[in-house]
Specification:
The protein is an alpha/beta fold. The protein is built from 7 helices and 10 strands. The protein is 29% helix and 27% strand. The strands form 2 sheets. It has a 7-stranded mixed sheet with strand order 4-3-2-5-6-10-9, with helices on both faces.
Length: 252
Amino acid sequence: MAKRNIIHLPTTTAYDLWAPVYDHDANPLQAVDDLELTTLLPEFLAFIPRSPHKPIIKVIDLGCGTGRNTLKLLSLPSVHVVGLDASPKMLDIARQRCTSRLDSLSAGDHAGKIEFEIFDMLATTTLPDCAQAADAVLSTLVLEHIPLAVFFGTAAKLLMSGGYFLVTNMHAEMGARSQAGFVDPETGAKVRPQSFVYGVEEVVTEAARSGFRIVGRTRERAVREKDLLMLGRRAEKWVGVRCWFGITFERV
């Protein structure tokens, strides 16, 4: 079998190309992320205090992509949801998906407001007006593409003191053997954006430098034989390998 051509592209360029197939390419890491977030996301949201003096809370999806997790926030009451991403093509899909979802919800059964903005933390430190003083930020499978200091420095600027930050990412065990990428259906080439491999300990250490402390427990997830029915055939080679981790932080 001929070796597949691999093309390395800047992260935003790669994700613009990936956008049309991103939600349909049977990515096992995305599937693990979705499974874990069924319980981790409610735990994270439970940390956010509610007060009659602040009826609306702001939650930012940093690196929201096609809105895979932004959608999960839309049924929350009295929430201002902000989706940020560097890829215009990804954001176009996120807007379409979330608009369609909101149209299916009754007026009293969805977030108070939703906005999307292009934001590339690798290119600017200037935050969009709608993305300041957040009560909570989540960022799923994004850290792999960002230097640690930039990632946590950006999150610290987005959050109010006492705000909460949920991070999920590819585990270093998986990252030592692979990285994010996709097969371009038009050319057959493997497209890879810039990626970094981070261990859990170095992530926690850098988070502390930016003023974050862990709350709750750190989760690490390996692929198990019994997961294959849910994760698909692409996950077979990852059985026994830790592929994912998730951590909730508080900005102190």
